[in-house]
Specification:
180 residues; mainly alpha; globular
């Protein structure tokens, strides 16, 4: 198996950048949902480096392994990172991170749909330019959602800790179905 990415393979590079952007903003959405600060500057730098490395590895492995295994690996690694930083159990952090990942994939889907109009109007065929347009629209929508009154103080029903294990398993399965 050869893991070297050629510069001509645009699809892999765009997918890696997409996964990196969604992972970073899912990480930020996680803290917004539970209404906590991210931590010290050292923790932020360490976490962003780990998220970047994990996203790059998952993006490269997507073409050699099943995509669901790569997403699962991303969720597990970042959930462990978040559980360590927020002093919560891994199941709670994985549930909240899966929800934030689903929110960010939904925003990216909406941004992709909206980007169709400028791409069609200006007849843009270049994949890099299309990706930049999608990313700009994604960022605009993401920041707009962060400013919404309901989302400003986090999601209250997700901030309480769940003690029933069967409910935890049900919610984790539901979150996985949302991503799929």
């Amino acid at each position: 198996m050869d893991f070297i990415i050629e510069l001509n393979d645009i699809g892999i590079l765009i997918y890696i950048f997409k996964l990196l952007i969604i992972s970073i903003f899912s990480y930020k959405t996680f803290f917004k949902i539970i209404n906590k600060k991210e931590g010290t500057i050292f923790c932020k730098i360490r976490n962003y480096i780990i998220i970047t490395i994990t996203s790059i590895l998952c993006g490269m492995l997507k073409y050699y392994i099943n995509i669901w295994i790569c997403i699962l690996m991303l969720v597990i690694i970042i959930s462990i990172l978040l559980a360590n930083e927020t002093n919560t159990n891994i199941l709670y952090s994985s549930i909240i991170f899966t929800i934030s990942l689903g929110i960010n994939y939904g925003i990216f889907l909406v941004a992709t749909a909206i980007s169709f109009f400028p791409a069609a109007f200006f007849n843009i065929i270049n994949k890099y330019i299309n990706f930049i347009i999608i990313t700009v629209i994604y960022l605009i929508i993401w920041f707009w959602i962060q400013k919404m009154k309901r989302f400003k103080n986090g999601l209250i029903f997700l901030q309480t800790k769940i003690s029933d294990e069967s409910l935890d398993i049900f919610i984790l399965n539901a979150c996985t179905i949302v991503i799929i």
